[in-house]
Design a protein that fits this description.
The structure is a homotetramer. By secondary structure, chain A is an alpha/beta fold. Chain A contains 12 helices and 12 strands. The first copy, chain A, is globular, with a radius of gyration of 19 Å. Chains A, B, C, D: Pfam families: FMN_dh.
């Protein structure tokens, strides 16, 4: 079977992963409306391609928070990579480094931050943090990340409680006994998400600020009001995200929310987006609407499920080729030429 | 089979109820367009969730006409509960009391008002009235309800004649011989709805007013004009309803009609809505658009069909949990924080 | 099998008619887009029903060009009724008279005008005319109709050539040898529509005017511009029609076109509509948007195919009952109370 | 099997062509969204047909760049006709001449320009050019075309690189060994499109201008900005095209883009359109929106696949008959009467 586009990897993963793992990765909250809308919303955006531009020399590199990456696609934080591939997050880290892009490691990794760092020294990595009721544990974790050379702290804002993912409830999902949420001192029970602190507020960004010199990126913003608050509380970046449709169902598709967030932010901080990226042209649309970079979640897991770090590199390489091609066909030779003039929202 | 969401109960009821009973409960008028629109219209509403609010202490209680209920979901009036479960409305009353919410008992109950009251003393109940040609019978019925401690009188306004429900016609639907519309003196023939008075007008609200001290809630309002008339005629509450799509097909979905009714009412009386509620987040949407409380019809019957009062409690508990979770994920810790800023209508 | 709604008759006809006859009646031009849009467009119109009106005494009669009919549904001109039932248009005439409504007999009837008249003396009938190249033949035909007591002349304006109905081409449709287009002197070949005159213009209405004292109703108008021209050329009525979607595919649905025609006509002549009527509530919508009466085409043929005149009466009676019920449920006790306030166009 | 409409030819070709050839012709880029949108977009346009116009004498001829053609449908440039029929482009040329219309021969023909010319002397033909890195080869090719009597030069602007057509990648598409891209000196490898020059810019139009006296038509314009540039750079015609949806997926449907291009051009040069034409009424819509003529791509290949030049004539004749009929039914007797008043965009 030729792996030609990302849905080939999806089909592979669906076929070969254990059902309980596939269901966990695929899950959306409730009716999965938002999970699916993330994808459909891209389809409602039309390009306005420009012809006869010199696109013989393509430059698809960009920078995020000052670090150059080979193209504007990073790896979003997702949990439990060992469910997809035995080496888990170590493979993810290696693939990201090989492709010269950014990997956001999740609090809920099945490898320790130290293992991840050791697997791919020198790779560009950010660390994703959930604030736990045990604040000391969170502080220790983020300071470990900083010490290990992680270059950004991603605070997830949309999970005071875990969304209701019906299949996980039906399956009674929990990690197999030989896997652990290794970054947390004591073993971690997935179904009772009790360790997370639902009382976190904007002021806790000041608390984080006091603990680390890393840039803070807030993940899970969907409205202009929260974007404004994020900027005012001093974050360096915003990831427009609805957690892959796994938290509040029937919120906006991320590409739709991106528009209002970018407008509110007015260039004061970098804005990224995740959710629904399935083709290189989706990346182009996100950049045209103001994202500095996108992050992929499920497609990275499909790549891992296919062939570990090699499979994830395949996924990234396909996205890279498709992105470069769609840029060229739209008339852009470098990322700096991408702008809102390239897209329009379909009236349908 | 795990009962995870309301459609699990629907599937159960469809599988285990006699076809004639399922068809009766499921029926919509004509093409069932409005019945289905009630559900689809919720899907066109998008949340605008707010992040980093302290949602560690959730308060989902509310009050309707001064009575506190555990969360803003009551039981809408539906007929013939014995078709779903042998104990019929007695089970409904017990479940509603157990969950500390309001049950609107229908004129067309298969238990008497006295049996309902005795089954769950002290529960919050309203009585739903159809005005019959025999006005004395209607008067007697409502005064029995008042004497039994029912705390509200719900006048159904949208049934001068019964809507055309094709499956009921095909099935020749009527109650099995061992069931009766017990609240009415003489036996009651379902298919010839002749006892109902199609000459009822707004002035009859004054007549009802003269008969009872109970608050009067009018059910079946779908336009701003009728909402204004209802307020002017002195009702205490309005239930925006299209009778579950069982009367005039191709009227508005209730959640759409709610918007204009709430606007017209301008807070002068409480506004409720029924029709199409299938998830806790639907409740949140209805409240965000101005409903004080919602009422569920068919889902209550599915719960009864599953396990009587226990099954109905399961349904209510799922809705309660989902509602609490969606509130938290939208950034609201109490019902008073819910407002129109939480939603937007999708352009699709 | 119970005949509960019009689609029951459609299913019956599809099952029992010879394929070539079913295909001919069902045919739309090209992709059948407009044929289907006629129906779908009704679904995009929502009622705004009003409650607590006294609807105990329902009056659904109306008048068209001064003649009272029992309810605002007549029989549109369609050809070749013997394909549906042996007695052909004689049965149609009898059913229309029995139900006290108007029947528009087609030029392309398989019974003569004399046979039609004799079958149901005293019935309200209009005659539909195609203008032929042989003008004398057309003149003779219309004067026969006038002499026989037909009370209106319906000029079909949308058939300079016959639309392309793919199934008819595939089937090589023509009348079986024992049927004739009896109103025309010489036998009539259906597939080569050569006798029709494609040079007819608005001035020919003056020519018709000079030949008859009957009111002239023009059928096939879809734009405000043509509506204005029709009024200026002195017609007494306009039937908004796209020939059941059998002529130019991808024109407007008739209920959509009705709005602009009614607006242009400003009450100067009566406006009717055909196409897509499948339920009593469709009739209510058409009247709310300004039609004085609707005409049914295919449903009448299904009724004939079911049981001849008895079947057509069944169809009319169902529409009548549904129309009366939907009027009552919308809060109207008589046709004069129906108005535009009852409907709104869905934004979907 | 009767060939009644263009989709009959499509079904035939899909059934009888080798899969690799069918896939190549049918292919769209990525998800094929734009390929399919080209067709769907026509369906969103509604006619406003006018009645009672004298349409007894129909004149469907038009002129493109001064040359008369029998009706406003030409053959778009597509590659590799021998994949559809042994005689390849020679059959295409013969059919186009027989039907008295214009054929745009592709650079990637499997017959030489000389063979094409010899097959149908005197036919109206334009030559489609890709600019190659080897500019001398391109120059030689276009001057051969001019010497052979081709009357227009069509510069394809939307293929700096080849779009990603997944099925072609999966199939490892390349020409069978016995076919050649004969117009190019050395054999031509399809999958590595390296000979094409991605550095072509607007200034290269001046270069072409210096090489030939033929009118230059630019193909692949989709925006008003590029339309303005095309006019300013002195082209004589614009073909609004998205390469049949084979290049950048999720650009606009061509019939939608036509509107803005026509508006921008303001009559200064002729505008044509290709993509999605499947019925005569699509041609009428395109002309109503300002196209001077349309070009068909895949339907021509289906015609070839069916019966070579005879099959292509069948396709053209069907389109011609359908176009004439739809003009008549819309009330137009000649192409000059077609205008924007005939259409409106559906709100759906």
């Amino acid at each position: 079977m030729a792996m030609v586009c990302l849905s080939d990897f999806e089909a592979y993963a669906k076929k070969y992963l254990p059902k309980i793992a596939w269901d966990y990765f695929a899950a959306g909250a409730d009716d999965c409306t938002t999970r699916d809308e993330n994808i459909l919303a891209y389809k409602r955006i039309r390009f306005r391609p420009r012809m006869l531009q010199d696109v013989s020399m393509m430059d698809i590199r960009t920078k995020i928070l000052g670090s150059e990456i080979s193209f504007p696609v990073g790896i979003a934080p997702t949990g439990f990579h060992q469910l997809a591939w035995p080496d888990g997050e170590k493979s993810t880290a290696r693939a990201a480094r090989a492709m010269n892009t950014c990997y956001i490691a999740s609090t809920y990794s099945t490898c320790t931050l130290e293992e991840i760092s050791a697997a791919a020294p020198g790779g560009l990595r950010w660390f994703q943090l959930y604030i736990h009721r045990n604040r000391a544990a969170s502080q220790k974790l983020l300071q470990r990340a900083e010490a290990l050379g992680f270059q950004g702290l991603v605070l997830t804002a949309d999970l005071p409680y875990t969304g209701k993912r019906r299949d996980d409830v039906r399956n009674g999902f929990r990690l197999p006994p030989h896997m652990k949420v290794k970054n947390l001192e004591q073993d971690f029970e997935v179904c009772g998400m009790s360790p997370l602190d639902p009382s976190v507020t904007w002021n806790d960004i000041y608390w984080l600020r006091s603990l680390t010199r890393l840039p803070i990126i807030i993940k899970g913003i969907l409205t202009r009001e929260d974007a404004e608050l994020a900027v005012r509380h001093g974050v360096q970046g915003i990831i427009v995200s609805n957690h892959g449709g796994r938290q509040l169902d029937e919120g906006p598709a991320t590409i739709d929310a991106l528009v209002e967030v970018v407008e509110a932010v007015r260039g004061r901080v970098e804005v990224y987006v995740d959710g629904g990226i399935r083709k290189g042209s989706d990346v182009l649309k996100a950049l045209a609407l103001g994202a500095k970079c996108v992050f992929i979640g499920r497609p990275a897991l499909w790549g891992l499920a296919y062939k570990g770090e090699e499979g994830l590199q395949d996924v990234l390489r396909i996205l890279q080729d498709e992105f470069r091609l769609s840029m060229a066909l739209a008339g852009c030779a470098s990322v700096s030429e991408i702008g809102q003039h390239l897209v329009q929202f379909s009236k349908l």
